[in-house]
Amino acid sequence: MLDVYLIGLGIAAIKMQDYASVFLGNGLIAFITMTVISLLILIHLNVEQLWQLFYPKKEQANDPHALTCQACHYTGPANSRGVCQRCHRPLHYREPYSLQKTWAALIAAMILLFPANLMPISVVYLNGQRMEDTIYSGVVSLIESGNWPIAIIVFIASILVPFIKILIMILLLCSIQRCSQTDPVLRMKLLKFVTWIGRWSMLDLFVIALMMTLINRDQLMSFTMGPAALFFGIAVILTILAVEWLDSRLIWDSYGKSKSTK
Ligand SMILES: [Zn+2]
User: Fold this and answer.
1) Least C-beta-crowded within 10 Å: which of 17, 199, 211, 221?
2) Could you tell me the distance, in angstroms and rounded to a whole number, from the CA of residue 48 to the centre of ligand 1?
3) How far is the CA of 91 from the centre of ligand 1 (A)?
4) Is this model's pTM higher than 0.85 or not?
5) Of 103, 142, 108, which is closest to residue 122 (Cα–Cα)?
6) End-to-end Cα, the chain, rounded Å
7) Of 66, 242, 96, residue with least CA distance to 171
8) Do residues 199 and 4 touch, judged by C-beta distance below 8 A?
9) Mean pLDDT within 119-125
10) What is the band of 104 on the pLDDT scale with cuts at 50, 70, 90?
11) Looking at residues 9-33, what average pLDDT do you find?
């Protein structure tokens, strides 16, 4: 999530300019370089190759008891304790209670998004005066101050992404339960898309955390998080868990069932 944090740092610096002068230091250049290098490492890292190098295990896909590990993608029978031979994660034919757990996380996230959007997410004390901002009013104040690009980024990350994610997950769950004939490759692409966009919802929380540490002049000026930050944070974690808990193999099962009942 270093890339999200870096964008959050940029937004916090722009917001800070309302209250103080911000200059770039050498530390920021070092941090940007570190982020770019670690992103390049992550892009070029081949996890399959690493597993083969350090824990070489022959794939046994032809074995009738073979199971695929969701964590390291090893295919073969479980060991005597019923876990993956390579990464020791419990192996299941299909993850137990996958749909139930995903629905529970999604419904809880949907309920939490109401207080997250209606209550103040950040509180600023300026010369003893208390000023509150919700997620939406924060975006509006960014537009009013002329920071259009930042306003668009915050709007997409904090308002659009959580709702799009929940909507796509509900569509996927319904398609699995109704044995839909929709192209399973398309559904897998949608699942990968929600996995990718999910972490961008953390952007606003990073900005608030950075502002809290940077703006603190006691009674003169201070910045603190509002109650919505907690609800928003839990909702984001729940949507990430919902994506994690959905066993993607169920999409192929439902497609197989729709073909066989045809
Ligand atoms: Zn494994």
Assistant:
1) 17
2) 11
3) 8
4) no
5) 142
6) 44
7) 242
8) yes
9) 85
10) very high
11) 82
Tokens linked to 111: 């309920």
Q: Which residues surround ligand 1, an ion (CB under 5 A)?
A: 69, 71-72, 74, 84, 86-87, 89
Q: What is the residue-averaged pLDDT of the chain?
A: 85
- Say how far residue 83 (Cα) sits from the centre of its chain: 27
3-state secondary structure of 124: strand
Residues 6+ apart with CB under 8 A from 217: none
Residue 25 has a pLDDT of 83
Q: How far does residue 53's CA lie from ligand 1's centre (Å)?
A: 15
pLDDT of residue 108: 96
69: CA distance to ligand 1 center in Å? Answer: 5
